[in-house]
Write a structure and sequence with these properties.
The protein has about 80 residues and is α+β, with helices and mostly antiparallel strands. It has one domain (about 1-70). It contains two helices and four strands; from the N terminus they run βαββαβ. The protein has helices at about 15-20, 50-55; strands spanning about 1-5, 25, 35-45, 65-70. A two-stranded antiparallel ribbon has the order 1-2. The longest helix is centred in the C-terminal third of the chain and has 10 residues, at about 50-55. The protein is globular.
Amino acid sequence: MNCRQHPPQTEMRNSFQQAVNIRGKFSISTPLKGKQILLVDDIADSKWTLTVIGDLLQPYGSGPVHPFVLALTNTGE
């Protein structure tokens, strides 16, 4: 997987800006051949990174994608 640098999600004002901020920043370079994927994010601010990458993995032939986050910064409380 390749990633281009982008501003932190915490700098975005709303969910739309967070989604636009992350779109097109990641790419897959290898067919996944049905492999299960453990998708790890150190800190999830908006969860858009997990959503967009999970969606990107499917067309490349991934099997189930299991997201795992070490810490949440925005729990909605």
